[in-house]
């Protein structure tokens, strides 16, 4: 299975058209068709359904696209790492990030680091702990920032100073916005939007048995998207403070939970991980920055 053919396949899947993909790849249409047919023969599965309107992925094709994209991302990352070994003025740093105000500490470290390595390029992927640790475990991220205590048998970690404060994002005209703090009883049978991770791990610590009275109508792994749904009147969002616009003109407001609920953030990387030169030096700086 050649890397070049995987790139052909991914581009054809993106374009949903052999003609457009061939143009984007600067190859002839017969050449591209032959390469894709050869890939199907190699794995013994039909990857595309073809009709007069173009092509679309089969079930096997959808799986193949996911695997091909992961393989190509790893190939590109490896190539960039070896290229960076010829110079230490920069390189690529891949970081998976949970949403948090605590990211500002990471940003400060990156800013300081770029003064020493001005050609550094950083690539952030945002999501919940499961998503960013998957990237880390697959070798697609050098580091991850997560919102729950790390597995000590699997990761080395640094604790980020401070903690994020939980609260409720709601419309400004919501009756609950008149309260200074929000209790579990206040949210009884209210329409709630929350991340799957939080509803499993964080909110039960706060609500206790009252968690079973919460009417979870939807989940989100990005607070901004959840806040758009709140603004549309779909429900209230349980979130960290400061992750979406709750200014006077935003139409939204934030009220902290009572009893207070906070979550610590951690920077993690795999034990015995082999870093690229630039990532290794960045980890060394983080260990200095967060030593205290």
UniProtKB/TrEMBL annotation:
Domain HTH lysR-type per the UniProt entry, residue ranges: 1-58
Signal peptide annotation: none
InterPro entries noted in UniProt: HTH-type_LysR_regulators, LysR_HTH_N, LysR_subst-bd, WH-like_DNA-bd_sf, WH_DNA-bd_sf
Keywords: DNA-binding, Transcription, Transcription regulation
SUPFAM superfamilies from the UniProt entry: Periplasmic binding protein-like II (SSF53850), Winged helix' DNA-binding domain (SSF46785)
Keyword check for Transcription: yes
Pfam (any one): LysR_substrate
Highest taxon listed in the record's lineage: Bacteria
Key word Manganese present: no
Family (UniProt): Belongs to the LysR transcriptional regulatory family.
Name of the protein: LysR family transcriptional regulator
């Amino acid at each position: 299975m050649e890397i070049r053919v995987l790139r052909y396949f991914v581009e054809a899947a993106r374009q949903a058209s052999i003609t457009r993909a061939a143009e984007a790849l600067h190859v002839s249409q017969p050449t591209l068709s032959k390469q894709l047919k050869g890939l199907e023969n190699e794995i013994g599965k039909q990857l595309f359904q073809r009709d007069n309107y173009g092509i679309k992925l089969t079930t096997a094709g959808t799986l193949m696209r996911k695997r091909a994209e992961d393989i190509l991302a790893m190939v590109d990352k490896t190539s960039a790492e070896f290229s960076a070994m010829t110079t230490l003025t920069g390189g690529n740093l891949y970081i998976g990030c949970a949403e948090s105000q605590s990211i500002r500490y990471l940003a400060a470290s990156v800013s300081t680091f770029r003064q020493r390595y001005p050609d550094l390029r950083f690539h952030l992927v945002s999501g919940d702990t499961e998503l960013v640790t998957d990237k880390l475990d697959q070798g697609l991220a050098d580091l991850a920032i997560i919102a729950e205590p790390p597995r000590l048998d699997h990761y080395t970690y640094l604790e980020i100073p401070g903690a994020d404060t939980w609260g409720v994002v709601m419309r400004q005209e919501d009756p609950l916005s008149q309260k200074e703090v929000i209790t579990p009883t206040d949210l009884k049978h209210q329409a709630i939007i929350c991340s799957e991770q939080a509803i499993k791990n964080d909110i039960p610590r706060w609500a206790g048995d009252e968690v079973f009275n919460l009417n979870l109508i939807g989940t989100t792994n990005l607070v901004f998207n959840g806040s758009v749904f709140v603004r549309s009147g779909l429900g209230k969002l349980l979130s960290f403070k400061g992750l979406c616009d709750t200014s006077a003109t935003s139409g939204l407001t934030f009220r902290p939970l009572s009893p207070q609920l906070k979550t610590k953030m951690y920077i993690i990387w795999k034990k015995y991980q082999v870093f690229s030169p630039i990532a290794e030096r960045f980890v060394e700086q983080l260990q200095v920055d967060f030593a205290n």
